[in-house]
Automatic annotation (TrEMBL):
This is Glycosyltransferase family 34 protein. GO terms for molecular function: glycosyltransferase activity. Belongs to the glycosyltransferase 34 family. One of its GO terms (biological process) is protein N-linked glycosylation. The keyword Glycosyltransferase applies. Keywords: Glycosyltransferase, Transferase. The lineage of its organism: Eukaryota, Fungi, Dikarya, Ascomycota, Pezizomycotina. InterPro entries: Glyco_trans_34, Nucleotide-diphossugar_trans. One of its GO terms (cellular component) is Golgi membrane.
Amino acid sequence: MVERIIKAGKHDWIWYLDFDTLITNTNMSLTNVINKSLANSTMPDTIDFLVTNDCNGLNDGSFIARSSPRSIKLLDAVRATHDREKDQSGKAMSDQDSMDVFFKSDSPLAQHAMHIPQWTNNAFPEEIGCYDAYKKKWERGMFVVHFAGAWAHVTGEDPTGQLMRKYEGDII
């Protein structure tokens, strides 16, 4: 899906976002997240992916990809990692695990990914206390709140729906 949007050539950056996420501050823009993140790089033109971690490592429920041929090569390499693992073990890796393994590899393409703080575009609420090294949970005023794995942290028939309803009143 991301590759198809890149090939369409209509956007500079593409934000992949899981369905279980609320944009909670509409006064903020994705452009600001990108610009602030790239300002922390000594070579911003070489960064094609902005990704975040959680307590388990990479969380690809919210990532930002530059619309470039190099991003397509990177996605192809992630798919190759997936396929290679499946061929070797007979079990398929998840897309998230494939991306994580690839970004930890010594491939020159992996150097085009930049890890940014989880709270910038993938913050988890207190109910899902699985934070990156910054240990910063979602707070009112942050850009987004992601309910990743709500089913494992919240009881009830519709854990994601419960959290969506709880936090919708905090949208700015």
